[in-house]
Every structure is written in structure tokens, then in C-alpha cells.
Amino acid sequence: MGSTDSKLNFRKAVIQLTTKTQPVEATDDAFWDQFWADTTTTVQDVFALVPAAEIRAVREESPSNLATLCYKAVEKLVQGAESGCPSEKEKQVVLNCCRILTRILPYIFEDQDWRGFFWSTVPGAGRTDELDDDEGARPLAESLLLAIADLLFCPDFTVHSHKRGPDSVESMQSIDSCEYIWEAGVGFAQSPPLNYIHDLNRTELLRLLLTCFSEAMYLPPSSDNTILNPWVTFFCSTENRHALPLFTSLLNVVCAYDPVGYGIPYNHLLFSDYREQLVEQAVQILIVTLEHDGGIPHPPASPSSIEEQESTGPENLFVNYLSRIHREEDFDFVLKGLARLLTNPLTQTYLPNSTKKIQFHQELLVLFWKLCDFNKKFLFFVLKSSDVLDILVPILYYLNDARADQSRVGLMHIGVFILLLLSGERNFGVRLNKPYSLHVPMDIPVFTGTHADLLIVVFHKIITTGHQRLQPLFDCLLTIIVNVSPYLKSLSMVAANKLLHLLEAFSTTWFLFSAAQNHHLVFFLLEAFNNIIQYQFDGNCNLVYAIIRKRNVFHQLANLPSDPSSIQKALQRKKKSPDVISRTSSQETVSMEGSHPAVPAEPGTLKASLVAMPGIDKLTEKSQVSEDGTMVSVPKTDSPNTVHPDHSAVTGTSDTESNSGRDSEVSAFLRGICSLLSQVLSWKCKLPLQTIMRLLQVLVPQVEKICIDKGLTDESEILKFLQHGTLVGLLPVPHPILIRKYQANAGTAMWFRTYMWGVVYLRNVDPPIWYDTDVRLFEIQRM
Fold first, then answer.
1. Alpha-carbon Rg of the chain, whole angstroms?
2. CA 81, CA 153: separation in Å to the nearest integer?
3. Where is the composition biased (Polar residues) (predicted)?
4. How far is CA 338 from CA 34, 181, 369, 382, 515, in A?
């Protein structure tokens, strides 16, 4: 009964706030205390009892009342941070203020006129002893962020108390938060006792912190990386004395988390796992704070530091700490933790749904990306042993599982980006030669082979059975294959046939002529074949045999028609068969046991829009592998498979010309054919076919001869012959190995920002923090 009364009183206070036409004085504590004095309102209650329309109404009609509510709530948090919340009542007031601010802040951010409100000073708010200047008061945002940081290390509220006896006192001002790190791991050896109340309180504070950082959602996409999120900039600066212990706490809580626990079946149905909610919020805070690595904050964090910031840029301490992790045991802890969590949704048990499946794998992939990007020592540690395969297999699983679901196109991109980054390092290609024996259930053909075979088979499945919006990723997928190809010792017959099937599909004339960049895909595949033939011929009899069997594809490429009538005929064929790749001609075999087919998104599924991804030439830079194994950067020039954007393929007349006369349509079509003709001639002569043609010239007569002489019909005998064959001295001089390494740029930075915030928006549904607010960084679309 009391619970119902308290909700009623809270609701009455909200109605009073929205209906009062006169400003309520800040000193009227009896009125304002109604919002946080109650002990039974949950965060879900606050979201239900404070409707969006009423927050907007107060914002428009009684702005001073909304300002006072925010100021008073922050004031209560500051008081709680100073006192250390010794009583249960004070703890409850802090939590209620957190919930109210979490509810209101998105509506402050969506209105441009209000966005600066938290960066203004309110008389008497957050007064500090250190500031003796004329202002004497911090901006409200700074007071709020510092109070949250203090409260995250508040004994008996969010951390275990270290009190020696009943009379000893832990002063919030003198507390050394490095002794109160939440979990053992990086830089901290003790694992504090689990306390679910502390976990719940930390989660509420982190949810508010994430809401503070979410101002970024309300600004349109911009490739200007100098404009920083002022909330993140201040929180990750030296102004926050808890920056190091908080960063360490967040990282350790995530990497130490084991969702399976003691392995008791169905334990997640019997007990609430409060640690999981905390881990989700922690990983989201980490990826959001690590998005900024310095620049010029907007607006400046504090006037006194503008000069210094313009000269050096404010240092993001979270990025700094991440980049300075260097101990092998710390790397091992982080890598094993991430691998355990990423592998969790793949675990199969004989009892259906008996183990807990986590849902925050997208945030984990972004965190892994940040670790590799900001800490090169970590990247080299990952590639030093076959532990990298513990990251590769779950990524391939997610890619394969999401390929038919348009709401998960962002997940496809982040997975491919990570593999592109890893493939730029020689060790990744070498590690792929390890036999694949795990057999995670995926709906791909059964094969016996290595992790390289698994990668090729999954990529083939994505290209041939994924949805249309994945086409921009084809260049990336094939670039990864090219990067690892010089190191692949022995491809299986299944993988070899998949590569040949891709070449066959991409080299049809209608596909080659139908878009200006399509020939790139053929160039990539030919380059991969050349790398394997030149550098790994001895162990790759399966690929050599597949090339011999499909030799007509290479002959057709060598004799590609490039006269106007042939091009016109090919384009007309395209209109009759618009499918990119024939799904049937790839001899599909039985899928793995226990696997489920990839399915499209359920109708009504929400997804966040993404900005366009830069082309492969912007995503990568070329490096040549020298004889001693070092990489030498190759200066940017037009590669043989570069086409200038002004040459576009002819796919019919454009919409803008449809009202013109018939003559102009015909002349435009002829101009297009001529442009396409010159384009085809420019790349056709650069097709890298010499090595393969020489191989066919030498081996085809030999294979035909032994088949006739010995009456062979069994391919295993032919493979045995090819296994012991050699092309030493018969092939052209080996070309230098060319690796396309991922390079960051403004386009990818913008893509990551929209993707990351889209994930955060969609994953926070209980309560729905940003739902139905006017976000501008991306659009929320219903499938």
C-alpha cells in the first residue's frame, strides 16, 4: 500500500511542476524534496511517472522550474558525495536524483537552446575550496560529473568499506580510491567480496554517466574530429581524481566477468545476475570514453585551461591508461576475458537454453578494436600466439549468423574491420594455418582443414547468401583474403572451390561491366591466387587442381570482349538476370550439425542508420614486404585496378534525362558506352594473369597426359601427382608481397561514432533512456 501512495505522491509532484505557471523558489525544499525523498520509486517508475510530453512542456512553458529541478538534483548528488551517504535515507536520495536526471537529460540535449545550460554556473553550486577566482562556482556539468565519480567510490554504497573498527571514519575527501578498485585484474590483485547492492548502485550511477555523455547523439554527423564531447573531455581529464581507479575498475569488471559462473545448468533462471547489468554499463562507458583521444573540447572545459588546451589538446586519461598497459599478465587477463565473453553465445550444451547467453558482444568487439588501435603492444601480443583464433572464431560466427539480417549490418562491418586490421600483420596469416577442430555450429559446409579454410568458407557464404546491403563489404572481405594469402600453406578442396566459384561469378561480363568498381573483385582474387602459387605452391595442390578444372574462366578473362556491341549485349543480359552471384552453382553440401540457418530480422525490429563507409582505397594503405620481412610503405598512385569516379558504368538512362528528347537519350547512352569502353581497355591489359597462364601452360598437358596414359579418373591420383610436381624456374619472377593495412581516417571515425551510439541507444531499453527523443546522429528505423 505504501508503495502505491508514494508513487501517487511522486506523480502529484510531477503534475504540480508541469502546471505551475510561476517559478518555484529553489529554497522551497518542501516542494523539491517530493522528487527524491521517497524510498520506493525504481528507475522504471520514474520513466513511467514522468512522461516525455510533460518534460517538454516544462522545458517550453516553465523553463526556470526545469532549471531548478536539475540544479537541486545535482546539489543533492554533490551533498551525498561530500558526506559519503552514511544513512540509508541519503543513499536513497542519491539514487532517486540519479533516476530523475537520467530521465530528464535527453530532453535537455535535444533542444539546442538548452544544451549549454549544464555548462553555465549556478550561484553556489558545487563550490570548491581550490577555486578562489571570481566565479567561485563550477559549471553544473562539472559538479555533476565529479559527484558521480566520488559516489562510484563511496564506502558501503558502491565499494566495500575498509573501516578498521566501529569508530573509524572514512572521509570522502581523503579516500584513496586506488585501494577500492572494484575487481582484481589489470594493476590490482585483490578481488573484493561480491555485493549485489553495490553492483546495483554502481549500475545506476553509470547509467546516469552514460546519459551525460549521450549529448553526442543529438548533434548531426560531422567528420570534424576536433569537436569533442565536453562531458567526456572533462570526465577523462586530470580534474577527475578517480580517473585511473575508475578506468581500471571498468576494464577489470568486464574482463573478469564469467556469465556461466559455476556451470550449474539453468542457474541464470534461478538467480538474478546483477553483475551482468554492471558489466553491460561498464563496457558501454569504456567504448564511449575511448572514442575521444584529444583535440579541442567544445565548449572549453574551463576558461583557465583554454590556452594550454589549444597548444597540446586535453589529454584523455582513459585513452592514455589504455595505451600504457604493457605487462604480459595484464594482456593475458584482458584477452582471455574478452575471448571468454565473445565465445559465450557459441557454447552448445545438451540441455537447451541451460547456459546464460550474453547480449553485449557488439560492445565487446568495439572495445577489442579500441585496445588494438590504441595499444600496439596489445595487438602484437594477440598475434604472438594462436590465442588470436579465440577471437577470430566468434567473429566469423557472428558474421555468418548476421549475414541475412539487415538490422545487424553494423555488426557485420565491425567484425570485418577487426579482421582487416588483423590481416595487415604477417602473424595473423601464419596463425590461420592451425587446424580447425572446434566445430562451432554454423550453417556452412562441413570441411576438414584449417582456420584459413573456415575464414574463406564463411566469407563465401556472406558474399553469396548475404543481403544486398553487404555489397560494399566485398572489397574488404577479399582484401583480407589477399593479405593472408602469401602465408596459407594448404587450402582444403572446399575452400579452393569456394574461391574459384567467386572468381567465376565476378568475371561474368555483365557483372564486370555493370558497375565501375566491379573489376576490383577479380583483381583481388587473381592477386590471392598469384600469392599462393608463387609463395605456397608446394602445399596447395587442391587450389592448383581447382584452377586447372576451371581453366576456362581464366581463358575467358584473358579474351574478355571489349568492343561496344559485346559490352552492350552484356549489359542487356544483366537486366534479365540481376542477381549478383548464382546461388546454385556453388556445390552446397550438408551444413554442420546443430547449426541454424541465418534469418532476416523480425518485422518491427528497430535499427539505427549508419553513415557510409569509406572505399577500400581510403580504408587501407599499401605496404610492401621486403626480403627481411619488414614492411615498406608504398606511395599512393593509381593501382591497376583503380578507376576514376567520372567513368561510370552504363546501366540505362538516368532519371534526370527521362524528359529529354529521344536523340539526347541515344547520345547519352553512346557516350556512356564509349566511356565504359575506354575504362575496360585501361584495366583489361593490367589483369595479372601471367603466373596462372604459365601454370596452366605447364601443368594442363602433363595432367592430360597422365590421365590418358594411366587411364586415371580418380582425382586423388591427380592430386598426388600435383603434390609432387614443381614449377621451380618455370614461373615468372615472384612479385613482391603487397599488404593493404587498415588506416584510420575521418570517415571511419565518424562511422564508429554513429555505430557505437546506435548500439548504446538500442541496447538500453529497460529503461528506454533515449527512446522517442529527437536524436540527430542517426535515424531509428523499423524493419
1. 31
2. 9
3. 582-592, 650-659
4. 44, 20, 11, 11, 40
CA 527 to chain centre: 29
DSSP 227: E
Q: Is the dihedral of CA 495, 496, 501, 504 positive or negative?
A: positive
Query: Alpha carbon 551 to chain centroid distance?
Result: 40
Query: Is 97 in contact with 73 (CB distance < 8 Å)?
Result: yes
Number of structural domains in the chain: 1
Give the Cα-Cα-Cα angle 126, 79, 159 (nearest 5 degrees).
Answer: 115
Q: What are phi and psi of 243, to 5 degrees?
A: -55, -50
Terminal C-alpha separation, the chain: 42
Contact 35, 101 (CB under 8 A): no
- For residues 647 and 677, what is the distance between their CA atoms, to the nearest angstrom? 10
Report whether pLDDT(662) > 60. no
Close Cβ partners of 647 (under 8 Å, ≥ 6 residues apart): 516, 675, 676, 678, 679
Over residues 677-713, the pLDDT tens digits come to 878 888 888 999 999 999 999 999 999 888 888 777 7
| pLDDT score for 783 | 79
How far apart CA 684 and CA 194 sit, in angstroms, is: 66
Which residues are CB-neighbours of 678 under 8 A, at least 6 positions away? 647
742 secondary structure, DSSP code: E
Spatial separation of the C-alpha atoms in residues 596 and 348, rounded to whole Å: 12
Query: Would 225 be classed as within a structural domain?
Result: no
CA dist 661 → 568, 658, 666 (Å): 21, 8, 9
Count of CB atoms situated within 10 Å of the CB of 576: 7
For residue 432, what are the domain limits?
385-601+620-641+686-742
How far from chain centre, in Å, is Cα 187?
27
Identify the residue whose cell numbers are 575550496.
129
Closest CA to 204 of 154, 133, 261, 265: 154
Residue 752 makes CB contacts below 8 A (sequence gap 6+) with 291, 366, 369
Per-residue pLDDT tens over the stretch 93-127? 999 999 999 999 999 999 999 999 999 886 544 44
Q: Within a domain: residue 697? A: yes
What's the full length of the chain, in residues? 783
Does residue 634 lie within any of the structural domains?
yes
**Is residue 516, in this structure, part of any structural domain at all?**
yes
Residues 6 or more apart whose Cβ sits within 8 Å of residue 104:
50, 55, 66, 69, 70
Report how far residue 120's alpha carbon sits from residue 123's, in angstroms, rounded to the nearest whole number: 10
Helix (H) or strand (E) holding 633: strand 631-633
Separate counts of helices (H) and strands (E) for the chain: 33, 7
Alpha helix stretches (DSSP H) within 243-295? 243-256, 267-270, 274-289
Structural contact between residues 500 and 481, judged by C-beta atoms closer than 8 angstroms: no
Is 410 within 8 Å of 610 (Cβ atoms)? yes
Matching residue, cell 577487426: 418
Stretch (H or E) spanning 420: helix 409-423
CA pair distance 308, 317, nearest whole angstrom: 16
Got the DSSP string for 360-379? -HHHHHHHHHHHHHH-HHHH
Digit-coded pLDDT (tens) for 162-207: 876 655 566 788 789 999 999 999 989 989 999 999 999 999 999 9
C-alpha cell at 98: 540519479
pLDDT band of 2, cuts 50, 70, 90: low
Cell reading at 120: 553555465
Q: In sequence order, what are the residues at sequence separation of 6 or more whose Cβ sits closer than 8 angstroms to the Cβ of residue 440?
A: 346, 348, 393, 397, 592
In sequence order, the 6+-apart residues with CB closer than 8 A to the CB of 633 are 621, 622, 623, 624
SS3 144: helix
The H or E element containing residue 398 is helix 389-402
